[in-house]
Amino acid sequence: MASPAIPFSDPADPHPEQQYLDLMRSIWEGGSERIDRTGIGTRSVCGSMLRYDLAGGAMPLLTTKRVYWKTATRELLWFLTGSTNIRPLVLQGVKIWNEWPHADYVRETGDQIGLEDFVARIADDEAFALRWGDLGPVYGKQWVDWPTYRYRADGLYEKGEGINQVSAVIESLRASPGSRRHIIEGWNVAELDRMALPPCHKTYQFHVAGEGADARLNCLLYQRSCDVALGLPFNLWSAALLTRMIAQQVGMQPGELVWMGGDVHLYLNHAHLIEEQLTREPHGRPVLEITRKPETIFDYRIEDFVVHDYAPLPPISAPVAV
Fold this sequence. Notes:
The protein is an alpha+beta fold.
């Protein structure tokens, strides 16, 4: 099936967003059609890469449709708390994770409550949220409280202190910037079955180029499964933001974000989104300002982030696949 051609872009100075549009187009025109876990169906390719220079406040924020960067930022800040319950997000108006607990509730109880009513009850009833709003040990839990177990003399094991991978990476970047072990990993095989959704953006590796005042922090993100139309715009923003935050904490300049995808796909029921977006041309180059440096990476607030020069084209809505 042919899709609309992407508008002309100057090859001598391509807009950073062009590579995202090129990826979308290549999947839609040449991806393999597959029946996936959701039953919706996708067009998929194996293995993709995008690269973004983060110098000068640049961020991979799409302009061919509005990306709600504050929503993505609130999700990232929630990850850093280690919370696995949707209630803190719901109370901020963030809807990203609502479908999964709702589907579990309906399946387990037989109560055919609508999504909006379910979310309202999560917000209003803390006890209900405690029982039905939890996602299991997803992203934030693994990032800041990876479980450990220690051997006891009687042949049993007891739970030890959790590992805060984010703190450990920051400490290792300060102490040994040339290390190749600056990694935050979300794929805890022993706990995948307890997660509402196993981590898609699973492995973050940080790399330092240069020394002293010239040190630049790069990040390589490996994403095992990527919904290019809905998920990737948020994933790119969040990874770049995390890189900027860590760079600020360790006194380095942000360098490059390298994104690598495994199963990179578009859902068949997103055709209207894809075909509309591929008629649009990127414009402008938004920049991010972080207005203060908190004491730790866990002390940032949504008010600390300001985006300048962002005038995107209108949003394009599409259903999330659960």
